[in-house]
Design a protein that fits this description.
The complex is a heterodimer of chains A (about 325) and B (about 475). Chain A has about 325 residues and is an alpha/beta fold. Chain A has 17 helices and nine strands. Chain A has a five-stranded mixed β-sheet with strand order 1-3-2-4-5. In chain A, strands 7-6-8-9 form a four-stranded parallel β-sheet, with helices on both faces. Chain B has about 475 residues and is an alpha+beta fold. In chain B, a hairpin with a 3-residue loop joins β17 and β18. The two termini of chain B are about 20 Å apart. The chains are: A alpha/beta (about 325), B alpha+beta (about 475). At the A-B interface, α1, α3 and α4 of A face α2 and α5 of B.
């Protein structure tokens, strides 16, 4: 089983409670199964008795996880509980036990196609705001395979990635600028012959001019902070644009990225996603300053459940 | 109770009517999560492929009224109700040993009021204590409650077990922090104890519920003290040749009536094992660290006085840096892999005694463990120091306990029985802040003597159907 490779995390997390205060789903459902400990216990039971993988409640617990890296980031030993859940999802898929809703979503995601637009040059941009990237070619298409991987459909993910690589290779570009943090996390170490950078790094290097002084809250990206080494570029970019960042909520440890780590969390668990959003709205209730996120998906989710919520993306901050 | 029979469904209908469909769980993953807390025995049971008893229902109430309705349902059907906070108790106090309803309190997590005039916070007790501390800090204060389990436990869990935090020497244990409580009695009445703890209006009902471990009712709200953020907090560490020398210095700091916020003394074995591993201090001897907080001038003065006391003994001065390092890493001791873990057998022989007795207690327990269980390692540290004595956080560790879970539990319990009874003989009290739970219930009669009948009478009067957490704290089990 794939989870065998994560025995250390199973054994460390199954009886450990030290990060439970940071699980975004556990914090809104209050359920033990929605904590790293709860999921590690489930995986331990599956490891002991592989037939128990057929337990629908266990599979449900695995797909309820928002895969936030906040818990791993907090843990002094950084046990990879999110890696464990991904491995368990793979086991479920390989055993044909993925829930019908997950299979349907995977089928839809497998239809991805990619095309390069614009004149060929040194830099290729992959994101929703090509108008910010003058002189760059644009790569159009949906998720490059990260969502399928997160759902446990590794083979299908590889196929989509192959199509993505083919399009990138055809562009002849030497640098790929990626806007969505999930895609950046997925692509940064998987492409050869082309440098992958996050949009914040690219835009910051262009030394943008500061507009008027203003205030905002920055919703930390789960992928950038907890998966990709917490680069300072998003905050530096906002500072360069004249934004003074205000503290948000009561702490800087929790993930407020409303399921970003699970990429297609809202499509899979809309009821839970609505609860994650409600928590962010409640924390934001006493502020009039706008919220800025690195992720278009996070913005779309927050706006979906409260169309009046004042949130823009990093790239939109440049346009504002 | 067997799932899927019609009585089960009837009860589930009543529960979902009380709290809503989304807040009654009967699925396998949640029941598994609630069948194991931080007590070694259910952990071992699971580790060896056995299945600890799960609850029949996990219910998440949002209000005291809902708690009341659930308790009335439980009384009607004779179902056990086991309050569950963070599940991080080490005594098995939250285990549903007879099935029944686990009352998971985490949904009751709202902060009702922060009163900056009286310096109090009123809060629903299902709140995670780290979340509480963050919220109080945002308002410019602190609970000064910093237990190792701050990130996992709820305030209700600390109230249930008379928990404590690392700064207890100055700011007190949870029972010193709580002013008043809202409680749902076992028969469903919602009551409030008197609003302040210092009064002459009869015995303290607040005290009755502090440490009652969910056996006398369900605590739903609490008003607790909060404190200003201190201007300074400073630490200093020393290494003494022997634990006895370090104890002499530590007890003198307390009996001179200096007011440290924390003192911690590690015996030679724990200094060699854990202090070395976590802090990287590789020395022979007994490591003593203390800290003071408050206005900086007072901190500096008290710190200097405490250092003078230590320097009067044979010592190695490790300085402020080694003290600060301990503070910075204080939680690291409890994360894997630094914490002891299965397949090891391990237990914390939490005992508290006066300064006159505490070393006798230490040696009595150590000798009993070493003489009778040569396969066990005994280590200990002294934390939570008071004007009159301190707490001994002694631990035994067996690297390779028996494979058979029954044999392993029997060995484990025998060590507890012998070590704790030895401590009681020397004037020790079990225990200082972990509670009794399932683990130590059988020792309550030894500890209390005839006075235990008083506790039993209170239990019987308040909980006539014995629905509240049966079989814990030495009280009768279900059907007893």
């Amino acid at each position: 089983m794939n989870i065998e490779a994560f025995k250390d995390a199973i054994h460390a997390c199954r009886f450990c409670f030290m990060c439970r205060h940071l699980d975004p789903v556990g914090n809104v459902t209050f359920r033990e199964a929605d904590t790293p400990r709860g999921r590690a216990l489930v995986c331990d039971r599956i490891l002991m008795d592989p037939a128990s993988l057929k337990t629908p409640d266990y599979i449900d617990a695995l797909y309820r996880s928002a895969l936030s890296g906040a818990n791993r980031f907090h843990c002094v030993s950084h046990y990879d509980e999110t890696g464990l859940v991904l491995a368990a999802r793979k086991d479920a898929v390989e055993a044909g036990l993925a829930p019908a809703s997950v299979k349907a979503l995977a089928k839809e995601l497998a239809k991805s196609a990619f095309a390069v637009k614009g004149k060929k040059g040194a830099t290729l941009y992959y994101g929703p705001h090509p108008e910010l990237y003058a002189g760059c070619a644009t790569l159009a298409g949906r998720d490059p395979g990260k969502a399928l991987e997160v759902l446990g459909f590794v083979k299908a993910s590889r196929k989509v990635l192959a199509a993505f690589k083919k399009a990138v290779a055809a562009s002849g570009c030497k640098t790929l600028v990626v806007a969505e943090p999930s895609a950046y996390d997925f692509l940064k170490d998987r492409l050869s012959g082309i440098k992958v950078v996050h949009a914040a790094d690219y835009l910051l290097a262009a030394k943008p001019k500061a507009a008027k002084a203003r205030q905002a809250h920055y919703i930390e990206s789960d992928f950038l902070r907890n998966y990709c080494g917490n680069p300072s570029s998003p905050r530096d970019l906002l500072k360069a644009l004249g934004y003074a960042l205000l503290p948000f909520g009561t702490n800087g440890e929790e993930s407020c990225a409303v399921g970003e780590g699970a990429v297609v969390y809202d499509a899979l668990n809309p009821e839970l996603c609505a609860r994650l959003c409600a928590r962010v709205y409640a924390l934001a209730a006493d502020s009039k300053a706008p919220f800025i996120t690195a992720s278009q998906a996070v913005k779309d989710t927050l706006v979906k459940y409260n169309p009046t919520f004042n949130v823009i993306t990093l790239e939109e901050a440049l346009l504002a | 109770m067997t799932p899927k029979n019609y009585l089960y469904e009837m009860i589930r209908s009543e529960l979902t009517w009380a709290v809503g469909d989304s807040y009654v769980q009967t699925n396998e993953a949640d029941r598994l999560g609630h069948s194991i807390d931080y007590y070694w025995v259910p952990e071992l049971w699971h580790d060896r492929g056995e299945k600890p008893t799960p609850p029949d229902f996990v219910v998440h109430p949002e209000t005291a009224q809902q708690v009341s309705e659930i308790l009335k349902i439980a009384n009607t059907h004779g179902l056990p109700v086991i309050p569950w906070g963070g599940g991080s108790g080490s005594q098995g106090g939250a285990l549903p040993i007879y099935g029944g309803i686990v009352l998971d309190m985490k949904r009751m997590n709202k902060i009702i009021e922060i009163d900056p005039v009286s310096m109090t916070v009123t809060v629903e007790v299902g709140i995670n204590t780290q979340h509480l501390e963050w919220a109080v800090e945002k308002a410019g204060f602190s609970t000064m409650h910093f237990p190792a389990s701050i990130a996992c436990a709820t305030l209700g869990g600390f109230i249930a077990h008379r928990g404590t935090g690392v700064l207890s020497t100055k700011y007190g244990k949870i029972e010193d922090m709580i002013l008043s409580l809202e409680v749902v009695t076992p028969t469903g009445e919602i009551i409030r104890t008197l609003p302040v703890p210092r009064h002459a209006s009869g015995p303290s009902l607040t005290e009755l519920y502090l440490g009652s471990e969910g056996t006398l009712g369900v605590v739903t709200k609490a008003t607790m003290k909060i404190h200003p953020i201190p201007e300074a907090r400073k630490f200093h560490a020393f290494l003494f040749k022997t634990m006895h020398d370090a104890m002499a210095a530590g007890s003198k700091i307390m009996t001179c009536r200096l007011q440290p916020c924390v003192i911690r003394l590690y015996d030679e074995a724990e200094t060699a094992k854990l202090v070395k591993r976590v802090l990287g201090i590789d020395r022979k001897g007994a490591y003593l660290v203390f800290g003071f907080d408050g206005p900086e001038k007072m901190v500096d003065l008290q710190l200097e006085e405490a250092c003078k006391i230590c320097r009067a003994q044979e010592h190695e001065d490790l300085g402020t840096e080694a003290g600060q390092s301990w503070w910075d890493h204080r939680y690291k001791f409890f994360y894997p892999p630094y914490m002891f873990h299965l397949p090891q057998a391990f237990g914390t022989l939490d005992t508290v005694a006066t300064f006159a007795n505490i070393e006798k207690v230490y040696w009595a327990m150590k000798n009993v463990v070493q003489d009778n269980f040569p396969q066990a390692t005994f280590i200990g540290h002294f934390s939570h120091w008071y004007d009159w004595g301190c707490m001994l956080y002694a631990r035994f560790i067996i690297d390779e306990p028996p494979k058979d879970p029954g044999e392993a539990v029997a060995l484990y319990n025998r060590i507890w029985d012998m070590a704790i009874r030895a401590a009681i003989r020397e004037g020790g009290v079990i225990n200082e802040h972990h509670g009794v739970g399932l683990k130590l219930g059988r020792l309550m009669r030894d500890l209390y003597g005839p006075a235990f009948k008083v506790l039993e009478s209170i239990k019987k009067t308040l909980d006539p159907n014995n629905i509240m957490n049966p079989g814990k704290m030495g009280f009768p089990g279900k059907g007893a």
